[in-house]
Structures
1.
Amino acid sequence: MHADKNDDRSSVSATMSGDRLFDRCPLGCRDDLQTSAITLTEGPLLRCTMCGQLLSSCTRGQYELALKKWDTSNGTTPEAQSAARFQQVTERRLRCALRLLGRFATPPLRLLDVGCSSGALLAVAAKSGFSPNGVEIASKAAETAQRAGFEVFCGLLHDARFADETFHVITAFEIIEHLNAPLSLLSECRRILKPGGVLIVNTPNAASWTAGVMRECWDGFSLSAMGGHVSFFSPQSLTNLAEQCGFRVERLETRRVRFVESHQASPVVYRTLKILGEICSVPASLLHRGHDMLAFLRKV
Ligand SMILES: [Zn+2]
């Protein structure tokens, strides 16, 4: 169920102009972008006719403004009530990465968290036996992580100039949907991963049932509410990105279905649709139609 199956097929170049963030598909496709039938505040989502990637039609100015909302001292540190859950989920992901590393998991284990924010994942990685590094462009969040004793480079990954083949595992959680040049980031990750190294990414699934039903009402598509979401992957386009950058998809999973955001319905309607979403979550996971997409990519 692609969110944009009723696309208006008019070419974007004929209808839009100005300082738009995307003029071409950031996954390197040659064909033009077209407008989709999903219209957000910034304008219609754009669709690559070759790979199906959905893209924001925002301007560079709107994008940069949305990114700035990220930069708080608390960053993405989980609330007290969800801290244990965050630790559990992160530990499970790191254990999976270790299993995939296999004989390449030679100590000392080095991990890099790209977009580490205030360092919540770095703390879990350290407890799991990794020697963690972070990279974070948001200076206030990066300072929080540094004050907690973590080695964090404040800036872009490329500017950190890590040596070739430094890390066993790189995590980039909720990053690639914010990027206008994802090929560049993944290529740099591949360069600094050791042979057999594992990159873990997660991102909203634009081919999910959630996106298909909620369309412009889905928070996953929101530029401003989500701190600069501009590029929306499907399992297919994420695989395309990984393979172009020298990775093999070892494992790709999607989970969760939602039919309404909590602020969009009365409590009764919300609870009813939440139960329906939970019923749909098992078949959605089996069919790669959940809205939370997680992929383990191995350097080849
Ligand atoms: Zn494309």
2.
Amino acid sequence: MRYVFLTGATGGLGRAVVELLSRRGYGVFAAGTNERRIAELAELPRVIPIRADVTDDQSLLAARETVLSHTPSLYAVVNFAGLTAFGSLVEGDCIPTIQRLLDINVTGTARVNRLFFELVRAGGGRIVNCSSEAGWMKPQPFAGAYFLSKRAVEAYNDSLRRELMFLGVPVVKIQPGSYRTAITDAVNEGFERMLGETRLYGRVLSRMKPMMDQELSRSGNPRALAAVVLRALEARRPRLRYRAGTGKLLALMELLPDRTVDWLYRLACGRVSRAE
Ligand SMILES: NC(=O)c1ccc[n+]([C@@H]2O[C@H](COP(=O)([O-])OP(=O)(O)OC[C@H]3O[C@@H](n4cnc5c(N)ncnc54)[C@H](OP(=O)(O)O)[C@@H]3O)[C@@H](O)[C@H]2O)c1
């Protein structure tokens, strides 16, 4: 049986991947921290739920022991653990948010791959890292912590690929657009919190809201992304990156110069005078 270790298995996208892999006959070590959702994963065939926090070496070492008690090697490690955030980089204290996102999205991914690498190599396997459209697109306002963490995931992923190519271990990145999961709720909650607290950006946020709602309302079904991840896992020669789910409007904005995009955001959301 092919075994996969997957973080973020308790989340919207990760759970969809676990379900698909389970149906395809894979053995899945499905990792997360939420006890209730971990317990629910146990109902799926060939799924072994594991409690593992990607910010904690000891917790991941214990997870590796569990994996080793079933198999000496892995077909793949898939990193889906990740957080988002919505907020200002100057109003309030963004530093704890940035640190948390870097710790989970970036260092967490690096920690998992470092600790599970030998099992992947032993299995002739591959590593899949979840980036985002935030990993390659022009940043949107008030999503700075998330964009900078996913840009770092991209740099980490590409560096890892350039290293592991010498060993014949493929490293693949997934760049999802917008999908309906708890992350969508987190963005909305962050927006409402910021709107309630801001001194500077009340008007800008109110004008931005319809655009945000429109973007979030066309979020895709996580099952569609799971099919993309399966392709990355089963391709004999996987692509370097798999992009899916990015909206046409955002994709079009990528064709414009940065200053034009700045101008469009200011046109749509207005300016804040120095007196405000
Ligand atoms: N949904 C989208 O539109 C979208 C778009 C682009 C990229 N992505 C990326 O896709 C990945 C999955 O996101 P999602 O949409 O499925 O979000 P989600 O439903 O909120 O799931 C997030 C997952 O991350 C796990 N996680 C968070 N902190 C963790 C920690 N310290 N240790 C271990 N696991 C941790 C959560 O597990 P517990 O709750 O059990 O801790 C959960 O399984 C993320 O990397 C995200 O950036 C999502």
